[in-house]
Amino acid sequence: MQPQSFYRAVAEDFSAVDEIIKKQLTSRVPLVSKIGDYITSAGGKRLRPLLVLLCGKALGRESDDLRLLAATIEFLHTATLLHDDVVDMSGMRRGRSTANALWGNAPSVLVGDFLYSRSFEMMVELGSMPVMQILSRATRVIAEGEVLQLSRVRDASTSEEVYMEVIRGKTAMLFEASTHSAAALAGADQSQCEALRTFGDHLGVAFQLVDDLLDYKGDSQTLGKNVGDDLAEGKPTLPLIYTMREGTPEQAALVRQAIQKGGLEDLEQIRLAVEQSGALKYTAELARDYVKRAIECLEVLPASEYRTALIELSEFAVARTH
């Protein structure tokens, strides 16, 4: 359990979600359970199920189906992680070897498929057509976001607009689906549903902006992944896009070349360029702006410890170092 106060508000529910995850991971095929256990036991922040619990309880929903929805969202997230690590050929996540590094690509992809399928079984168990609609659309948009990102790898002409479209799909969409589906399950009115959907989108965008910032500011030990991973893969993230647009001709040329060839040969020079060009400051300010707008969306909720926790969680999203 994380020490942050926003986890404490739903500590009991959070433990119950962990139990549901363990129970739903069982399979008659041992390798499925083994890989599933491995990736879910890595922990992580579990922010998406946490958002489900906090939003649902802030709207007065006190039932087991909220916990089941939280577990469903975590299954969807874990499935995307398994697939992402294969696509990105990542060797490290959350400070440990990735599943594909240990078992190979084929089992990782197939267990990701198992988790997707299991999440849809859990959705059916919830018996809510609005929730099914939100989550099934989310899985499609996430896949599109990943494919769009893939199509822009080593493309130094990628604009800030395209970058925002990528992160809205691949990251913000599941945050949005978490908050929106919790509101739908709680029977919130249309204005609350829309406000919480927007809250999730803005928070997810801010979260990914900080992630992309930490690729140049963090260290591997704290991050739980390799610093410079995005650069190594030739992904044009906002700090790089801004440096090419606003930096000196030399800084722009250095970044453009690094994106086009991938790899980490010039990592330290790139780190210096994104710092000196003001790209990190720009990205951090944009993240703070999105969090400010996210918090404003929470005004539709009645005052409670859960609304307070959502505000604290939003502030953590931009203050974090990992």
UniProtKB/TrEMBL annotation:
Catalytic activity: 5 isopentenyl diphosphate + (2E,6E)-farnesyl diphosphate = all-trans-octaprenyl diphosphate + 5 diphosphate
Matches recorded under CDD domains: Trans_IPPS_HT
GO MF annotation, one: all-trans-octaprenyl-diphosphate synthase activity
Signal peptide: none
Highest taxon in the source lineage: Bacteria
InterPro entries: Isoprenoid_synthase_dom_sf (IPR008949), Polyprenyl_synt (IPR000092), Polyprenyl_synt_CS (IPR033749)
EC number: 2.5.1.90
Cofactors demanded by this protein: Mg(2+)
Record PROSITE patterns: POLYPRENYL_SYNTHASE_1, POLYPRENYL_SYNTHASE_2
Keywords from the UniProt entry: Magnesium, Metal-binding, Transferase
Listed GO biological process terms: isoprenoid biosynthetic process
Family membership noted in the UniProt record: Belongs to the FPP/GGPP synthase family.
PANTHER family hit by this protein: ALL TRANS-POLYPRENYL-DIPHOSPHATE SYNTHASE PDSS1, GERANYLGERANYL PYROPHOSPHATE SYNTHASE
Function: Supplies octaprenyl diphosphate, the precursor for the side chain of the isoprenoid quinones ubiquinone and menaquinone.
Name of the protein: Octaprenyl diphosphate synthase
